[in-house]
């Protein structure tokens, strides 16, 4: 029986064989590796992945699709909303220290998924995701560009990222109204040591009025926090490199006193 894509789950199924092959090649799965696929859907990526791996864990919310997936002898099916999945517990159950994570993410909740994984990045080896191209442009953006923003800083603090593949709408059924792309995300071996919540707040304040110079927004916030370091506030938020946001957050995160 044909599965009808469900809008509430953000389902757009990948059907272009050349694109599927290119994504699998980018992931480069090796036999015996522990890979978790988010949103396997109709198994466009799932089947070529499991053929290379031998076995594969998949996270699927759609009950009807989960039933189909369970009939595949090489799949470990986690029927759940990915935002509720404990990836540390999953890695422990699968008997590994690190997971490779991949998937065609639902575009309507892609940012929450990225931040959910960011909180559990210690058990991630790498991530390969199909996302709206506009989102990936923001993830990999350089300072002083219109795409550079909160998402950029939060993710570049913890990952090295690159846009590895453009995917047009006609590669899907039904075709989305946006262009897509595939991003590779590799956790940094030695990220800046800081309080993630503090960095998140700092960046949110900085970009709250991105057209204004930071003296009017972040300057007041830093003063309230008792920040004593040097930070050029005569710039707009998008002009500040990720490393400078990290340094400010790290300074504020450090314990005071001896």
Automatic annotation (TrEMBL):
S-adenosyl-L-methionine binds at residues 12, 14, 39, 60, 81, 104. Keywords: Cytoplasm, Methyltransferase, RNA-binding, rRNA processing, S-adenosyl-L-methionine, Transferase. It is an enzyme of class 2 (transferase). Residues 19-189 form the Ribosomal RNA adenine methylase transferase N-terminal domain. Its EC number is 2.1.1.182. Coiled coil: none annotated. GO terms for cellular component: cytosol. Its main location: cytoplasm. The keyword Transferase applies. HAMAP family: 16SrRNA_methyltr_A. Specifically dimethylates two adjacent adenosines (A1518 and A1519) in the loop of a conserved hairpin near the 3'-end of 16S rRNA in the 30S particle. May play a critical role in biogenesis of 30S subunits. Belongs to the class I-like SAM-binding methyltransferase superfamily. rRNA adenine N(6)-methyltransferase family. RsmA subfamily. This is Ribosomal RNA small subunit methyltransferase A. It comes from Comamonas koreensis.
